[in-house]
Amino acid sequence: MEITRDNLVKIIKLGRMQFLIAGFILYSMGGLLAGLIMDDFSVFRFLFGYAILMPAHLSVSYSNDYFDQDADRFNPTHGFTGGSGILLENPQLRAFSHSFSLFLIGLSLALAFLFSWYYSSLAFFIWALLGNLLGYYYSAPPLKLSYRGLGEISTVLTGLIIPGFGYLALTGYIDLKILLFSLPLMIFQLLFICSVEIPDREADIRGGKNNLIVRYGRETGFRIMGLCAVSGSIILGLLFFSGIYPEIINFGVMLAFCMILMVPSIYGFIKKPVERQEATKLSFLILNSLVLLGLANASYFVYLLFFQ
Fold it and tell me: What pTM did the predictor assign?
């Protein structure tokens, strides 16, 4: 492959950087929570940890586009859905996309080894290894999780794995605090994957994918999203009663923020559009609301940690 400015631009677009924003928010929630619990926040450890997560997360975009070409050819690109479309238009980049995804995984694991050695945290390396494998085999053979009805499970697990990265980076261990805190995040990740799958239903059927929206349709998808928004919010509010978090964290405030997500999700639960164009618009509204909710909660933690 010839390295030209045009190819470099296309390679960057392949990375679908918008996914990194959502991943950084989740990572920050875990890291900031650790800082509040320990009453100590190491900027270096936080950034070092994200330097390990970022290539791992980025590799998923390159491997998914490579392995999802058959399904993506039936679907237009819409931000978080439909693939980047780059490999379909530029087949000369296909081999690079796969090789680069493997390089990013290798870089992530090499940095994770250094982090684990320096901070004496074997748990961090194991966590990084599991996260990289889960991301790669989401679409890669032989597991091809998204084609075997297991894509939603792997996505739900990222609601623990990604904030767990941030928590581990600061603490060096996983405990009950991050496990409980991740429960609503895992539920919200189910909402996330449904909102991503809804616009792609026809293409996923033709491409041989086996996911919730392919099996049960858009109407069921909007029902699931509404239930996820409500149940995840309630669980987040109930964490106040666990008694294991610092009193400075007001889970009532975080529950109030959840209205950002609950309002459009409940509307989707009631409306349940099945026509592609209308369903796509509503799923994107809910998806953007989820990102905004994450930003609100992360900003709240930043305020508590540095300005309270």
Answer: 0.92
d(CA 191, CA 269): 12
Cα–Cα nearest to 151, from 196, 92, 87: 196
Say which residues have a Cβ less than 8 Å from residue 151's Cβ, sequence separation at least 6.
138, 145, 193, 209, 211
Distance of alpha carbon 145 from alpha carbon 77, whole angstroms = 21
- Give me the DSSP letters along 183-220: HHHHHHHHHHHHHHHGGGHHHHHHHT---HHHHHHHHH
Which residue type is seen at 263? V
Angle at 79 between CA 76 and CA 82, to 5 degrees: 35
At 142, list the tokens. Answer: 């032989």
Could you check whether the bond before residue 142 is cis, i.e. omega within 30 degrees of 0?
yes
Predicted confidence (pLDDT) per residue in 166-205, tens digit: 999 999 999 999 999 999 999 999 999 999 999 988 888 8
Beta carbons of 70 and 209 less than 8 angstroms apart: no
